Amino acid sequence: MDLNKLLKAMLVALPIMAISACSSTSESETDAMGSTSGSGSELNGGVQTGGVGAMLSPEEQQRQQLEELRREHIIYFDFDRSEVQTEFAAVLEAHGTYLVEHPSVRVLIEGHADERGTPEYNIALGERRAKAVAKYLQGMGVQPSQMSIVSYGEEKPLDFSRTDEGFGKNRRAVLVY
Amino acid sequence: MKILAKWLALVVLLCTTPAKAALDIVITEGVDAARPIAVMPFVWQGAGAPPQAIADVVMSDLVRSGTFKPLDELGFPQRNIGALAQFQANAWASVGAEALVLGSVKPYGTDQFLVSFDLIDLVKAQNQALKGPVSATEFLMDSRQTVISAAQFRQYGHRISDIVYEKLTGIRGAFLTRVSYVVVNHTQKAPYQLMIADYDGYNEQMLLRSPEPLMSPTWSPDGRRLAYVSFENKKAEIFVQDLYTQVRTKVSSFPGINGAPAFSPDGKSLAVTLSKDGQPEIYVIDIATKAIKRITNHYAIDTEPSWFPDGKSLLFTSERGGKPQLYRVDLNSGKVTRETFEGEWNLGGSITPDGRSMIFVNRTNGKFNIARMDLNTRFMQVLTSTRLDESPSVAPNGTMVIYGTTYQGKQVLAAVSTDGRFKARLPAGQGEVKSPSWSPFL
């Protein structure tokens, strides 16, 4: 969940991967590594070919990075708060960039609350969290028509432990494509 | 939730044999303050096995009222008597109970039974026995007989409880009532179920089952319809469902929140929370015409409307003061006044049927409990000591509150008397049980 660390790790890892792998999307990375790169592949006649991964332009690198970030689709909130914390800025920027580049893509933003307080108040709180995320994305240029919102309040917890840690996991907004 | 059925059996056990009470029970506080009463098993005057024990229904009702403590039948000076004529006042002179309920059941044609019962004022009987013979009818408080079918035993038991309770306390009994609630069982494909049961958990029926959340069931004043929120269309919508015909009517499906429905006292309107105009605000919807009227207008959250008994104003939760507190809005003038100041949060409020006090969720030191505030003296009393309490719903006679709480990591229902002296937990069966709503008198 520590996104700053993830980000830094990606910055270091990406150029390395760019040299060693030829894939352009992180999802097909493992396939590429296994079948064509690294030690090369054997062909008929005993000869062996070797190769290097394609060089990624800075744009491509950034794209990879954003795709990685977009896999993170949950934003967590403090108790009874609905402001987007700065630690989630990178994740939201990744989603925002993607949505701006793909104006036909729509996203559902779910707002959730922990189990403290009443169900009705938590519905209101969940909506405010979802709206805070929508506003953030709109600020990046995402069209309001691309986004819809639903609040589930405390009705769909992720964690049923009812501990402080569990409450923390339940206070969230979820981006659903 | 067979749960409540189990509860009933356990309550009876608890009173008679405390040693067996180590089960899921239930009465967590308050039995000591209860008034002793004697309930004699009704005498069966037919052949073969006796039908369902009606006195057991009466006893558990009286226990659950928090007001009475039925004595162990084994200590009764007379056993197996079914009418006043067999009652010998002298024999009962040393029994420490204020009243005796006795009765009989006899076959009365196919699937029909004649049930008779007498309510005897034991204190009066004991006093008069000292003065010499008097007419037994002197201490007869009530006596009735009715023909019922085999299926009506529990119902008539509750009826007897209502009569006994009212005769002895002056307060109308609420034993012939029902409760609706939501059961969530995540091991099932459609985890959310809207349920209805007798107030004691018997005769549980499913009204609706959904793969998406169901919330906030609430009764119409005539006890015939329920309003609730369903996410079956991946958004919050308010439905009204007729309990007899099963006909469902979608009443509200605006963009955003459609929540927290509450029937007006005349049953014609619903107060609701809508966020279609931005922030959650209180509106009143005419159920027949669907016409809506906006009641509140503030950039903070306004929700959880609840009607004052006269239908002229609403109690609601607002965080316009920074944190959730209870406010009252006059429906004619739109004037808003703050009702609660004590504690960190106060929310989810409703007015008791007598209009004198308010039941709500209070947050103090981070703990959520059910509280009551007297509207005249403004004295606030926290009633419960359970965890994560929410969704309080007051019995139609104002004596008891049913609410949702958390016990051993699970959502369960619990009850507390409005004076805070009687507390009971209603253990859950499968899944989580939440959002209880007590019916009006049926």
Q: Could you give a quick summary of the protein structure above?
A:
The complex is a heterodimer of chains A (177) and B (442). Chain A is an alpha+beta fold.
DSSP helix fraction of chain A: 40-55%
Radius of gyration of chain B: 24 Å
Largest sheet of chain B: 6 strands, mixed
Helix content of chain B: 10-25%
Q: Any idea what the radius of gyration of chain A is? A: 21 Å
How much of the residues of chain A is beta strand, in percent? 5-15%
Strand tally of chain B, please?
A: 31
Topology:
The complex is a heterodimer of chains A (177) and B (442).
Chain A: H1 3-20, H2 29-35, E1 41-42, E2 48-49, H3 58-70, E3 74-76, H4 89-101, E4 107-112, H5 119-139, E5 147-153, H6 164-170, E6 172-176
Parallel strand pairs in A: 4-5
Antiparallel strand pairs in A: 1-2, 3-6, 4-6
Helix pairs in contact in A: 1-3, 3-4, 4-5
Chain B: H1 3-16, E1 27-29, E2 35-39, E3 43-44, H2 54-64, E4 68-70, E5 99-107, E6 112-121, H3 122-130, E7 140-149, H4 153-169, E8 178-184, E9 192-198, E10 205-210, E11 214-219, E12 225-230, E13 237-242, E14 248-252, E15 258-263, E16 269-274, E17 281-286, E18 292-294, E19 302-307, E20 313-318, E21 325-330, E22 336-338, E23 345-351, E24 357-364, E25 367-374, E26 380-382, E27 387-394, E28 400-407, E29 410-417, E30 423-426, E31 432-438
Parallel strand pairs in B: 2-4, 2-5, 3-5
Antiparallel strand pairs in B: 1-30, 5-6, 6-7, 8-9, 8-31, 9-10, 11-12, 12-13, 13-14, 15-16, 16-17, 17-18, 19-20, 20-21, 21-22, 23-24, 24-25, 25-26, 27-28, 28-29, 29-30
